[in-house]
């Protein structure tokens, strides 16, 4: 679907590595390749074609991400090429998120949800700060060459609370260099949706909660993955306990009318990712129910359209818009999604104003209306 300009708020930088680049680097570094080692087998191993679970969806990361782990030059290249690909899709402003620790060899191999990964023995020991610096360099070059504005969000990971304080520290340190917010990602399964100090699982994310409370105090913008693999109550927890300003995914919020009504009344923004919502099993269309995105559109909810992890979905942003159009979203609703995306972006005030002006002008909308 031809639609431009666009704004994207929910895309994982490490889940947007170009297939060709990953393949090239894996071969160059003599890293393990799936099957008989052909490019087609590589693609077949990392691209998710059928709906399953979030954990199944993430398996491909263990195959392709070692291509860039511990390699600052490759991380910068990944960031630069990300800007190129985004610009090709008509994106004029994007916020890409990633966990810097997952681009560090030891930390990546220790991450529970990527435990199947094959390590790169030649990876260098690098710091999280160096990872962030490399992505900033790539984005700065990409902005200059492709005329896009690119910002980053740093992700904490559920089950790895020991990283969270350092991630907040990096958000603070690089606040004036393009890092605009903090997130927490990972599987919600097993996390207590309602606070309860007697729960051991509740205690496991105590550090994360403290970090997000501190981020709110310091004025660091916050988004939280919630209501994807977990129930609607996870959205409520994200808003009330984690102090979230936006919700990553959030589809299952429609299962609880009171929480959903709260979100509508308070203009909570949902970062929707159409294709991944199906492939992770978060949403099923087999029962004949419409996708929650269509209800968001009908109810006037604030939401955006995003790619999430294009390396594994094998989609681009135009594909996501086409899918939403297939579900019945109109051109006006797609335009509104972009306007709401920019309104709820974590961009600097002057950047937000400039992009909003571009959107209104391109869509032929009087901003006073």
What would you note in describing this structure?
- By secondary structure, this protein is α/β, with parallel strands linked by helices.
- 46% of the residues lie in helices and 13% in strands.
- It contains 18 helices and eight strands.
- It has helices at residues 19-28, 39-46, 54-58, 61-64, 72-88, 105-110, 128-146, 164-173, 200-204, 206-218, 232-240, 257-265, 274-279, 292-299, 310-313, 317-326, 331-343, 349-363, and strands at 6-12, 91-98, 149-157, 179-185, 221-226, 246-249, 269-272, 302-305.
- The protein has an eight-stranded parallel beta sheet.
- α12 (257-265) links the parallel β6 and β7.
- The longest helix is centred in the middle third of the chain and has 19 residues, at 128-146.
- It is globular, with a radius of gyration of 19 Å.
- Its EC number is 3.5.4.4.
- It is a peripheral membrane protein.
Describe the structure concisely.
It is found in: Cell membrane. The chain is α/β, with parallel strands linked by helices.
Total tally of structural domains = 1
Class derived from helix and strand content: alpha/beta
CATH class identity: Alpha Beta
Low-confidence stretches: 113-118, 196-204
* Average pLDDT number: 91
What is the number of beta strands? Answer: 8
Q: What is the CATH superfamily? A: Metal-dependent hydrolases
For the biggest β-sheet, the strand order reads 1-2-3-4-5-6-7-8
Q: Give the count of helical stretches.
A: 18
Distance between the termini: 27 Å
Radius of gyration: 19 Å
**Largest sheet entry:** 8 strands, parallel
The coarse silhouette is globular
CATH architecture call? Alpha-Beta Barrel
Q: Approximately how much helix is present in the residues?
A: 40-55%
Membrane topology: Peripheral membrane protein
Keywords: Hydrolase, Metal-binding, Zinc
Pfam family, one: A_deaminase
EC number: 3.5.4.4
